[in-house]
Amino acid sequence: MLNPSLSFKRPEADLSILELLSQDFPNVDAAIAELARLAAVQTLPRSAVHVISDIHGEDKKLQHVINNASGTLRPLVEEMFADRMTDDEMSEFLTLTFYPAEVTRRLQQTLRQPEEVRAYAYRMLQPQLELLRDLVSNFSLQLATKLFPVEYSELLLEMLHAPSIERGPEFIDAMLDELVHRGRALHLIHLLGRTIRNLAVDELIIGGDCWDRGPRGDLVVDYLRLQPNVAFIWGNHDMLWLGASLGNEALICTVLRVSLRYRRLGQLDEGYSVPLTPLEHLARTVYADDPAEFFMPKRSGMRPVEVVARMQKAAAVMQFKLEGQLIERNPQWDLDHRRLLHRINHQHGTIEIDGQIFDLRDKRFPTVDPENPYELTEEESACLARLKHSFLSSQKLQEQMRFMVGHGSMYLRRDECLIFHGCVPVDANGNFLPLTVDGKPIAGRELFEGIETVVRRAVERSEEDDLDFLWYLWSGPRSPLFGKDRIATFERDFIEDKTPHRETKDPYFSLIHTVEFCDRVLEEFAVESSDGLIVNGHVPVKVEAGESPLKRSGKAITIDGAFSEAYGDYGYTLVLEPSRIVLAEHHHFESVDAAIRDGIDIVPKVQEIRIFNQLRRTRDTERGQRIRYQIEMLERLIDAYLTNRLHERSANVSKPYHR
């Protein structure tokens, strides 16, 4: 509580801010002590930042990549213990480090006697504590202890300081004996393993696209929510699912179509409690005689393949109708040429696209009225109403979307890296192209920040204009998250001729091979251009074809490494370390069971992107900049105390001292 005698000698607004700060630092000594601590923290090596993009629903692979810290934990463990562990012991310890919960859960079934538990715990605790000490040394103690399990925080601090002349082995033995007696030894080992993993990566940045293609986007976000420090860069697939969760009907149908195409239905019915019964009923009635041969799903499953194909086609046709309505009510986007249903000649089985006539390979449109092609039938409306209700009522879906938006943004700067998902829309000469947001044409960095405003507002208000804008972010030509002139879904589904399938990329993707353009982008986003690096995902690097993620300019890198099995089953993590920036290339991951049973690991292939002449310190990072602001405020607080503009108070003793 503030000192009631605290008063200002003059009405300074700045003193109101300092008064709030004085609650934590009530006198000169407290402020000086914190200032000294922060000055010391600035000298520590910068903490590791890991950037992963385009996960696309591959939850098991993501879990392992996070658990092994994108391959960075293994070499550290090998370096520390290679001369003290056999190969089998090393494999056992690494498996425990990567999967502490799963390993200890199995051990609870196999280690029946207390002496067996104690022997295992004593053998594992020593290297765990040594590894923990090494990782903690890179953090301020205040920050590191925030990652400790709350109930065991003081115990872990005691254990970390145990090796000393005064504290013999009996100090740890006494702790361990009590934990074994109380049945908590394996639990502590589990918590230590989780803490080690959390300390190995200071910040995890997801570069966009958590959903689609892979099996369980819901489990991807579930696992990310468990991480202590995670940030999202939004991708176009994230906007697709966000818009669907908020009730945009075109995006609901798109989510359904994509999920059916890749037969990834578990995330809908099991993950988000969105039953597909209404769509299946539509497929079994209105589309009952439709072969839907060009809508066959890419995988098998419990539902008959023909039924899933008809469900996908039904969802696709509703999507095209609803997109046509959406484009018509947003003429400012100039997308009328993408309204295609009224361009079908049902008599001749053709369609006109961009002034050319193409034959349709599928001429069955049982729900399309040529006179009113964008109007839903009664059956479609009933189906969509039930599906929309399920999306809006899914508590888990709503919670995950708020988490993603609350921890997300359109771009981030981390030291010399500018990170975003797709592109900066430009013309062929590299000039930033505007997009109208809230009635104002904006481009470049201003566009990214304007989009953030609309996305956050959409979550709070769910107004039609904002939800329509989420659709544009999913597939609009000047969306920084999409970066192509069109998404040719209709053409790929209904036209054999591949000519209209072409989707032209934004010039950005060719211009990032030039230094001059990269420097222009970096400067636009206030990143030092001399050592700057543009980092984006979105466009998969064709690893098997020999493509390089690092562009010819040396100043841009694409980290979409086809993480999903549907794209290639590789994947990248960009790792920002104190002495270098490296790209870790991952490969196929079998399963968690195989990793625990056989010690299988994803050992990435590492490519160095930047090597620094000097070790990067905390003071060189965004965290260092924030600390400088904090130091400045503490200096002003000290001055206010010394000039008697604020009154000092005694520090409150929060707890009694015990030996």
TrEMBL record:
Annotated GO MF terms: fructose 1,6-bisphosphate 1-phosphatase activity
Which UniProt keywords are listed? Carbohydrate metabolism, Hydrolase, Manganese
The yes or no answer to whether the keyword Hydrolase is present is yes
Output this protein's name.
Fructose-1,6-bisphosphatase class 3
Species per Swiss-Prot/TrEMBL record: Novipirellula aureliae
Q: What is its EC number?
A: 3.1.3.11
Q: Which domain of life is it from?
A: Bacteria
Record GO biological process: gluconeogenesis
User: Keyword Metal-binding: yes or no?
Assistant: no
- Family annotation (InterPro entries): FBPtase_class3, Metallo-depent_PP-like
